Amino acid sequence: MAPATTSPADSRRLVGSRRRTEAPRRMLSPSPSPPPKKMRPMAEILATARYAVVERDDYSDMSCEQCGSGERPDELLLCDKCDRGFHMKCLRPIVARVPIGSWLCLSCSGQRRVRSFSQKKIIDFFKIRKCNAVEEKCASSQDARKRRRRSASLVLQKKRRRLLPFIPSEDPVQRLKQMGTLASALTALQIEFSDGLTYMPGMASRSTNQAKLEDGGMQVLSKEDTETLELCRAMSKRGECPPLVVVFDSCEGFTVEADGQIKDMTFIAEYNGDVDFLNNREHDDCDSMMTLLLATDPSKSLVICPDKRGNIARFINGINNHTLESKKKQNCKCVRYSVNGECRVFLVATRDIAKGERLYYDYNGYEHEYPTHHFV
After folding, report:
1. CB-hemisphere CA count at 13 Å for 227?
2. Nearby residues of 230 by Cβ (< 8 Å), 6 or more positions away
3. pLDDT (tens digit, 9 = 90+) per residue, 215-272?
4. Where does the pLDDT of residue 104 fall: very low under 50, low under 70, confident under 90, or very high at 90 and above?
5. Peptide linkage before 242 cis (omega within 30 of 0)
6. How far apart are CA 135 and CA 146, in angstroms?
7. Under 8 Å CB-to-CB from 185, ≥6 apart: which residues?
8. For residue 229, what are the CA distances in angstroms to 226, 275, 283, 294?
9. CA dihedral sign, ordered 339, 245, 147, 153
10. Edge-to-edge strands, sheet with 290-293
11. Terminal-to-terminal C-alpha distance of the chain
């Protein structure tokens, strides 16, 4: 068969159709290239990405990423994202209680690691006042005279049971370490430091704290003991703290140890925190509420709640007053006084306390309002 022939008109139509399939050529200058897209860093993507919890068949070989030990498996927390293990005590901040629900380690949660407190941070944390050398020398000499006067009448003092001011550690570096342990414990529980009772909006006001409302009356702090209290407050504001350190125990959580010898009847600390009505806290699960006022009218009774604000008294543990062995550990007592018409709660040593000994007191006092069967 002879090949088909195409006319010149057909050839022009084919060429024209073939050219229409090509991109038209522009004679204008080329447009600038679009800016490159910004890519999100991989760490940001992983931090917001969904994750699935994959359970292992066997966790017997699990060890802590910090200390490398697999001991104390009951204290080993497993990250729900990376499945690595960490001891509650090895974490910073220390985890005092087993978290409810899912838990992420610091790397997976993106939280900043709590660093050790420097000297400047400790001074800022406790708002320590800086005094010049003349004022410090004068205050120290006055403190020494008061201590000599009290120590000279030791027999009379024991008879009247007057309060003694605490004697801070002589080494300023040691005092900074003591305050650093308290700052770390407060930070771990997200508690602000407070050197006095706080009255927050929506809770009890200061006008409700009236010692005259106490059922049966409240003992009044004597003039001599009031001077001791003011002396201790002045020392604390200068950074001269009681010889105490906050340590973490796997059974008791945060607890307080003596970092030096403490004599009988020494003022330990005032129990501080938010003041609220007892009726507002009936269903509160805070394990450190303290009775402030037991009024004849129950609706006017007050409690101290150190869950948001507090001091070292928050970490001094109570005894199980249902067992004889536990009662033997008690070396402090909790007493409520009327100071200038207001209720205050103090912790006082009931015997000589040696260095390294932990502090315990009867959490109930005399009212026996709180159960202590579960206390260690």
Report:
1. 8
2. none
3. 989 999 999 999 999 999 999 988 899 999 999 887 778 899 999 999 999 999 999 9
4. confident
5. no
6. 17
7. 94, 246, 248, 254, 315
8. 5, 20, 34, 23
9. positive
10. 274-277, 302-305, 290-293
11. 110
Q: Give me the chain's average pLDDT, please.
A: 78
Question: What's the pLDDT score for residue 369?
Answer: 55
Paired tokens of 100: 């409810």
Distance of alpha carbon 97 from alpha carbon 107, whole angstroms: 20
Helices (H) and strands (E) in the chain, counts: 9, 14
- Helix ranges restricted to H, the chain: 8-20, 42-48, 106-109, 119-125, 133-152, 154-160, 172-188, 223-237, 324-327
In sequence order, which ranges of 153-273 are alpha helices (DSSP H)? 154-160, 172-188, 223-237
* Half-sphere exposure for 183 (CA within 13 Å, toward CB): 21
d(CA 288, CA 202): 20
Q: How many other CB atoms sit within 10 Å of the CB of residue 52?
A: 6
